[in-house]
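S.,

Sequence below, as promised.
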Amino acid sequence: MKTSSSSKIAVIIVSLVLAIGALAYAAFYVYQQQKPIDVAVSITDAQRAEYEAKIAEADEKLKQPDPNNSDGLPNSDYYIQKALYLGYLGHLSQAEAVLKEDLKVFKFSTVAEHNLARLYEQMGKYDKALAVYEKLVDETVYNQPQYFIDVARMDRLLNDVNAADVAYHLNLKKFNSPDAEFEQWLRDNKK
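The prediction came back faster than expected:
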């Protein structure tokens, strides 16, 4: 059976329209994932000025090598300080970028990782927060009871009762650090 050239052209046009639609959807998805996340904050003008001054101070200190570091790198604390004050101003995406920069320079900054996970929580990126908390639990020699509780909290927010139960009981086994409210939630939600 022969197909007319107009049928072939119609098929090509429909294919192009579908391909363009798929590309537009992919571009929109990428944009949504990378769109800056800022939140409104209720702070006074004096607080805003103070936080902006602290950010400027951290920027200046990040240009200087830490005298206690033989590599000539700045002190990691100033990245964390800058991210903290950006968060206070509601600039969550900027705070995320600063913490990621800290982790590029200082690969084993558990304080930066913990702050990044907390920031992901604020941003509603619970899967990312959980991944960072789990990394802290798995890879950190400074395992803290808080890291296990944080994993359990994220599992709770993601409605994974079994995973929350496991993380919570690892905390109990390792640190004997009970949380009555969390235990009640587990009792209420276990199947």
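DSSP finds nine helices and no strands in the chain.

Coffee later?
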